[in-house]
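Inputs:
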Amino acid sequence: MKGIVFTEYLEFIENKFGYEIVDKLLNEVDLPSGGHYTAVGSYDFSEMVQLLMKTSQLSKAPADKLLYGFGLHIMPVFRKGYPIFFDGLTDAFDFLETLEDKIHPRVLVLYPDAELPRFEITRNNNELIMDYKSSRAMGDFALGLIHGCLEIFGETANVSKENLVEDGSKVRFTLTRGPA
Amino acid sequence: MDPKSDLPLQEDLREKIKMLERRITRERAARKEAEGLLETKSEALFQANKQLSNLNKTLERKVSRRTETMSTLINNLHAGVLLNDENGKIILVNKDFLKIFRIPLTPTEIIGLDQRDSANMVKHLFNDPSRFIDIIDNCLSGNTDVMSYELVMKDDRVVDCDFIPVRAGDEFVGHLWQIRDVTDARTIQKKIADSEGKYRGIIENMELGLLEVDNNHIIQRAYEWFCDMTGYTEEELIGKSAVEIFLVKEKKLTKAMDVQDAKRLRGEQSIYETKLIKKNGDEIWVLISGAPFYDNEGVIVGSIGIHYDITDRKNLEYELKKAKNQAEMSREAEKQFLANMSHEIRNPINAIVGMTNLMYDTQPSTKQLEHLDRIKYASDMLMGLISGILDISKIESGNFELVEKQLDIREALEAIIEIAGFNKQVDDVQLRLEWDKTIDFDIMADPTVINQIFLNLLNNAVKFTHEGEIVVRCRLLADSEEEANLLFIVKDTGIGIPQEKRKSIFESFNQGDKETKLKYGGTGLGLAIVKNLVAKYGGKIVVDSEEGVGSTFQFNLHFQRLKKRDKSDSKKTIFLGSKADRILIVEDNQINQAYLSGILDNWNIQYDVANHGVEALKLLEFNPYDLVLMDIRMPIMDGYETTIRTRSNHSGLNHTVPIVALTASALVDEKERALAAGMNFHLTKPFTPDQLAQVFKKFELLEEFTEQDNAPFDFGDALDNSYLQDFYGDDLDRVKLMFTIFLNNIAKEMSTLQEQLEEDDWLKFSRTAHKIKPNFAMVGLTEISELMQMLEGVNNGHTSLDDAPKVLIKAQQLFVEGRKNVQNVLAKIEKYL
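Outputs:
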């Protein structure tokens, strides 16, 4: 998993709960990498699971809420770090539609070893159906990102999330909004 | 500050400081890790750059090599090539291009020039400069189709210009110009066209009608002469089916046309004949040479036929065929006639000859003797003529069959030379045989054929030679274990043959000349027969001759060679034992009946005799027979019908009895007819007892026993038995021949002797006596031979002239008796044989 996810996650936890929780996490969780993450490195996904579980335990906040919050947190970071993907776009749906065609391919150029989720996107005027597929089952993180995206473009839309399989490895997001 | 309350605060602070220290440590570790990662990435980046740069260099080298290859290729193309970019600037040009347009620049010098400028530079070379400029403008204006033009230059050169737009992806990047000098090709095309025109002219002026049809016979083109031939115009024919319009609806012809169609579709050409219907309904015969023709892709699209009117020829052919049939029919009639003649004429003449011989015994007067001589001469002549005609027609019709047996060729020739000697007119002529000692083997040959060849040649030689000698030479040319090629030469010192006659003497009825015919007589068939018989033995006869000096006949014969027969073997007598109960003779001729009865009595075989078919059928109805000997020509019912009736009576006693045909004619036709009628075998009359025995053996009705037997034939007391036994040994065939010749000639000689005595012509008298002296010895009349020696002596004083008449009377008395004895012995020999 890309290092930026880890650095941003710790950033998000620090923002939300203070560095004390971060310090506790890094002291108490036995991480193979030692926990000194850098955005340009890559780390095992199990470390993220360990961190998430420990955070939930320390903060008493449920893991899905944490993931959702993390998604919401990271969207502005992307906006700031990779403005090129947002250039010329004024609409959240338009942006989301470019995910598979433009954004993910560019990610793979920079990080050929990145393991990205797959989205199948169907646009029907004011309805956008995004079918998510990932063995990581991080649907709540994706939900956070979608909401973060709507916030960036200053839009509101009704977002529903539906597990297509029990383990959450296939999830359907349906975005609907009022006519423009 | 309250230290107590400060304490937890300090503790808290210390904790915070420691936490911050941990944070700094973590951040530093993270920075180190990031730096490490960056260094690794830089290193990877450097290596990647290096690889990229190497790849770049390799690619550049490849591009440069390919460019070089390409430009060499373009330079060496047998076409002018020019490449311009999208702005009309020249990028590349080859030497041929500069040569074709006579541009005095190098390829490098012209690069970068404007295409329009260069076009203006060369436009004066063209017959139509403005057209050239228009074409260039049209191309450069961005027209993106491939265009081809053929342009003629002022110096008569013809160039083919192709303008090919070049694209990189969707983008137009320029034009490729391909210019070829096609002057030679155009010249050749023109020559071909001229030549085609010339030959078309020739074909149309020949009497050959050309017609082009497609694969379904639909007429595509009809040439003038074809239209003239059939009476149609080309317009009337095009689009119509040639088969429907022209072909005569006869099964044979339509079938033949199907065969031709199949050939054409296989790409074969062929020549055939067929009948066509003209517009006016007349039919003509045409000879058609048909060949397929192809489109540009090599697919057969139809055929072209060259028609030649052969109606006249066909009519002539029909007439000829009719004439040939007629000729064949008359030839058939002729054959039938000859077969009849053999039966009908030979017998009466035999009677005349026989009766004439008997007449000499009736003490005729001098006048009557003269008449008898003429009758004898004429009937001998007629007999010879008929035999000759029959022989030649038999040989020429291919119906002549060789009857071969083992033969000592030297003995045979000696006997023949002896016989020919009797016909000598003059004693001065000597006959002799020169023998090649290497011929120490026997041969398989037909003795009749050998006799005929040599007797004909020797009789001629004797007839035309008045002094000198006649020599028969024999030489071995080549031999193998099975075969021998013998060369024979018959050389005389006679009158010779004129140059212009030497070729024709071997043709039937052709003698030296009319004068010869008058002087020497003969049928003119002898040499024709010889030539044919020589050919039967694979040989060829030639003649060399000089008038007044002599003639030499030379020929070779191929024989199967055999080991010399052990003479003691020939002394074995064959005993025959009968296995037959009873046989039937069906024969109308009483002499033949008697002949057959004699033979069968000797073999102890029982037999019945029927005089014709009706009698035979009656006998066949009630008696079972082992064999039937069936004559063909009989009164009341002939042999064919008798046989057919016997065979068709399926319940008869003799339904399957073997029937042997006895025919007087050796013609193969009669033999075939006999077999077709249901007869099992065929014998030609006259046949020998031995030949008949072979037939009986074939049907297992005779058994053969052989036993050593040294007793020679008993000639009886009337003739000089011991002399004859010494002289002939067991060669009874030769005895028979000699006795027959004696009986045929001697009466005449005796009367000659009588005449010469009466005329006191002692010289001739002596010669005649000398000549006939050995003849008497040879038939065992030794006493008369001695009397002749006495008479011969009148000329040299050994015998007195007064004694001569008495001696002659004595001789004549003995002759009357002796002659009868000779006849009796001959009959005995014939029966024995």
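Remarks. Residues 63-81 of chain A form the longest helix (19 residues). The interface with chain B takes residues 7, 19-20, 23, 26-27, 34-41 of chain A (CB under 8 Å).
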